[in-house]
Amino acid sequence: MSENKPEFNFLRKTWHILGLGFPFVYYFRLLDSFGDTKVLLLLFLISFFVLLLFTEILRLYFSGFETFYYKWLGFLMKEKERKQLNGTVPYFFANILVVAFLPAELAILSILFLVVGDPLAAYFGVNYGKNRFYNGKSMAGIIGFLLGSGIVGSLAIWFFSSQDPYSFLSLWRDGFRLEPLLVLWISAAAACASEFFCPTAWYGFLDDNLVIPVASGVSLGYLSHLLLGLEKPFGF
What we know:
single chain; mainly alpha; 9 helices; 66% helix; globular; disordered N terminus
């Protein structure tokens, strides 16, 4: 076991939670008065991702800009990110992927697993984790991630069901259905496993901010097709 204890950055986690607004806009089609919500949202996400990536290149290769950046935005970063990409870069790329390739409900669940599960894993791991695994993570963090993402995801499915009783995720179609919750909790476990085992590589681009939504999105899509009859779980 390792005694390498992670830190909990409240402001960073709060910033990530704000990203839930993207699938929220997607689900409620809030931009339809200006065009197709999905297309417009993707254009915004891609544009912001490119701008963010350009900013990160400036930070990494120009010391003057790096000093300016850390003065104003350093509180959102981990210490280890000083020499690699900010975790916001893979985070926005993950948003692009789930909005582009998943139905709105599954995109929201994928991002929920990240913005709820990851902060809870960090909080409970930092404050209650004792004996740690080889990567510094703890059983308390694992439990925090799984229960937090599973419970919030279950509430989201209940909300989707109330909005559209005929949705593929509906809990009550010809009586109560357990299958949507089964899909949810298995996918929450997949997200939890991806958070635990994910390395940081490719200058920080391969990160749990990318892997958690992708792993949970693949699991949600495949299981929704297998157990809930969703015909096309992946596709633009």
